[in-house]
Please model this.
Amino acid sequence: MGGAPIFIERASGAYVFDADQNRLIDYVGSYGPAILGHAHPTIAGALAEQARLGFSFGAPTALEVELAEMIGAAIPLAEKVRLVSSGTEAGMTALRIARAATGRPGFIKFDGCYHGHSDALLVRAGSGALTLGVPDSAGVPEALAALTQVAPWDALAVVERYFSADEKRVAAIIVETVAANMGVVPASADFIRELGAIAHRHGALLICDEVITGFRLHYGAAYDLVGATPDLMMLGKIIGGGMPIGAVAGPAALMDLLAPTGPVYQAGTLSGNPLSVRAGLETLKILAQPGQYERLEESGARLERGLRKALAETGVRGCVNRAGSLLTLFLGVERVSNAEEARKADTAAFTRYFREMIARGIYIPPSQFEAMFISLAHTEDDIDLTIAAAREALAELKQTR
Ligand code: PMP
Model:
């Protein structure tokens, strides 16, 4: 976005405060975990209490079992849960299980989806890789990248073609249940479900990456909302309440391949640490209360309506994609349904829009290719102020074109 990066000093509820003491309404939300808003008193209190009991033991705790059971109660697929320290590790581990289970080396991912920064997954990757124009990272050996086949988002026929060309090469299809790393791009209704059917017809697994969508769109996994049947799933972000976490979850038959029960090695010094687990547990308890996701949906719908109106009133070309409390305003394009269309967005205009929004006290993700994350701390007033700022920012853009 140019200019000096914004250094955040503290955050509370829907707001972040930068080092110059500006208060900004925050839609980055730590890129997903802060669904309750920042420094929620219950979570902060629980963390302080937990910290007095020790930070990390290298031995089991009842807390991690409790978190795994809470996840399992909300997500039937999660018969067993392995806690790791990041979404990246969840992706690495899920792939390793899939390779061990099928005896096949490769997998299929989608252009613009991001599954963390492990070598084989940094091929046509979204998120920062897309923003910085390095979808295929340097430092990834050709031999590893070659194991990854990339299909356009929503393109079932391409996936079928990969399987018919060489079925025995594909261990798994890995997919974001709602794409949120090329900006928000929901799939067409049957896409995720059909991916499961195709994978299973060809003896491969479906891995749903729910690092963003898990407990974001309802109290559970988003694959449930589209009737898909993945074999493994990845979680992260919200289940750690803002502390480092990731998880792989699935049926015992697959999860028992993991060491020490099975031959697939995985470990982590800080994995399942009591601070992350406690923050996650307390977060899920609050999210389980009635009405939370209805409120998130209302806030998302209010912001979507307001931004669409602001586009119409200012005559700026753009469109809004949304899934619940995840939203992206794309500039310069009228529709975005895959990464190719997302790449056509006017990133120069977005940079200007970002700066105009910051000047008006609104902190949105500094990239055209990320989601805005709405939290339970955002009030109607916060959303209305955001819409008013957006209208002004867009009018400014129109004027100085
Ligand atoms: N998968 C998805 C869908 C993500 O959005 C991210 C991070 N934004 C990851 C995986 C990687 O998670 P982490 O940054 O915790 O390694």
User: Anything to note?
Assistant: The chain has two domains: 42-287, 290-400. Residues 292-314 form the longest helix (23 residues).
